[in-house]
Amino acid sequence: MxxxxxxxxxxxxxxxxxxxxxxxxxxxxxxxxxxxxKIGGIIPKTVTPQxxxxxxxxxxxxxxxxxxxxxxxxxxxxxxFLDEKLPWLASLNTSLVINIAARTVGxxxxxxxxxxxxxxxxxxxxxxxxxxxxxxxxFGTDPGLAAEVVSAVRQACEVPVIAKLTPNVTSVVPVAExxxxxxxxxxxxxxxxxxxxxxxxxxxxxxxxxxGGLSGPAIKPLALRIVWQVAQxxxxxxxxxxxxxxxxxxxxxxxxxxxxxxxxxxxFYDPGLSGxxxxxxxAVMAAEGVSEISQLTGSLQLPER
Length: 305
Hints:
The protein has 305 residues and is α/β, with parallel strands linked by helices.
């Protein structure tokens, strides 16, 4: 028998395959493509305290083996999310993790206190790592500030807390250590890598915001490296994110040290992938004689020296 259920401290998922914030809309857009009961959880697009119009277009551009995006956290604000989006999302038979971003610790704390009173939210993912907004990575690049946000949210609500960390630092490990010490239940590794695209004939950047976040298969080796490094140094469950588009990719992240994964860019060109991966994972585990996800997590064997 294969058991796909995983526990990320206080957060329990039916299986380790989630969809990444910003790539799945508010889930209703994906109804025709995904059986929500087959995936471990849904993470809708980031919500901020007040509505945001986002960055000027163009906002996305395809790159070699990936894409750059500079959406800028375009959303209708926290009030509208709670009133109009949450009731339907909470009715789905899968875990719901909401992703929030704010400019101050106080704003994070206020949003968390309202999450505490809302129904149907299984966990909160703190977006302290968006490279596409002014001040978006400030919390995620400073271990002290990152820990302060996590601590404030933990005190304001009882739902499990996930910290989504940026790779745009010299080392993610100190930040992961700080948020783990502040009480986060898990970390998502990683958000996008900052990059840019240029139209050299026009001598102009392609993105309206000049810089954007690189995602997709191109970043998978980098994300795997960070997952492995953090897993060696920090005792906190890891959700691996970055370029996953096949069951082999899922297995690589688990073996590197992840307990769960998020599917991101692949949702744009293969929206049914997440559901299939959960089914394929069960088959691969059975073929490998593995009954629990924990038997795979961090099972990488290094060469002898």
